[in-house]
Amino acid sequence: MPTPDKTRPPAQSTVQVENDRVRVTEWRFPIGTATGWHRHGFDYVVVPMTTGTLAIDDGKEIKKVELTAGRSYFRPIGVEHDVINASAHEFVFVEVEFKTPAR
Predict the structure, then answer these.
(1) Across all residues in the chain, what is the average pLDDT?
(2) What is the pLDDT of residues 61-91, one digit of tens each?
(3) How many domains does the chain have?
(4) Most buried residue, 1, 61, 64, 83, by CB count within 10 Å?
(5) What is d(CA 80, CA 88) in angstroms, rounded to the nearest whole number?
(6) How many CB atoms lie within 10 A of CB 87?
(7) Range of the domain at 56
(8) Which residues contact 41 (CB under 8 A, 6 or more apart)?
């Protein structure tokens, strides 16, 4: 795991729902903030609430991605990255993690 970039202030996370099956977290990214380096322990879906640009640092490169409010995407367990707000405004998304495997 890469050394975290401590120069970026942290994004703000608020767990909205958590039980034995799912965890739903709202992530708010003021300009220039980041999640910090992390590994996803569950499959998850991200639902952007705003439109904007995030920079994804996978430890090898930083790639900018454009996200659109309401356009969700899925990622599998094991993803490792730092997510940085590269927009000129606050960026918000909701993350839904699936704690139980698909049946």
Answers:
(1) 94
(2) 999 999 999 999 999 999 999 999 999 999 9
(3) 1
(4) 83
(5) 25
(6) 19
(7) 12-98
(8) 77, 97
